[in-house]
Amino acid sequence: MNPKSISLEEKKLRPVVDHLNDLLANYHIHYQKLRGCHWNVRGNHFFTLHAKFEELYTNALTTIDELAERILTLGKSPYSTFRDYVEHAEIQEANTIGMNDIDMVKAIIDDLEALIAMQRDLLEITSEAEDEGTNDMINAFMQFNEKQNWMLRAFVNKA
What family is this protein classified in (predicted)? Predict the structure, then answer.
């Protein structure tokens, strides 16, 4: 795809695509952490958290696909190896085996806060590039993450 075919300038899009790829890498690490939490949650909150983690990883998987497709729309290739994800992500992997259920929630809260910060930075970059399509997409992702962050913080009384 040529960015000109959607009325965008390639030069302005370079930082957008770079940041989209970084966000993609972070979402992959976040997604895998959510899967681990879903598989390994134990304790009094099992039924609540098992379902919540599934909801969150399902959303993360959809987000990953939308990010990759947007990168392709802008004329570049998305990261597609675990090496790329680990190398470019700020979010760190976590071993969820034996992790306390509340600690799992706190780890996801930390991820969401990191993703929200990255998304806010990306909104500035997309605005400068006059890329309203990416801006709208990222804004929707951020709004979802903000709501989930609020809900999970309420769950652990972390106001």
Answer: Belongs to the Dps family.
In tens, the pLDDT along 122-158 reads: 999 999 999 999 999 999 999 999 999 999 999 999 7
Find tokens 């895998």 and name the residue.
32
Closest CA to 29 of 103, 108, 97, 104: 108
CB 26, CB 118: distance < 8 Å:
yes
Contact 116, 145 (CB under 8 A): yes
Calpha distance 90→69 (Å, rounded)? 22
Tell me the one-letter amino acid at 13.
L
Neighbours of 97 (CB within 10 A): 8
Long-range contacts of 8-11 (CB under 8 A, 24+ apart): 8/74, 8/129, 8/130, 8/131, 9/129, 9/130, 10/75
User: Which amino acid belongs to residue 65?
Assistant: D
Amino acid at 103: D
Question: Is the pTM higher than 0.85?
Answer: yes
Dihedral sign of CA atoms 27, 143, 58, 14 in order? negative
How far apart (Å, rounded) are the C-alpha atoms in residues 78 and 131? 18
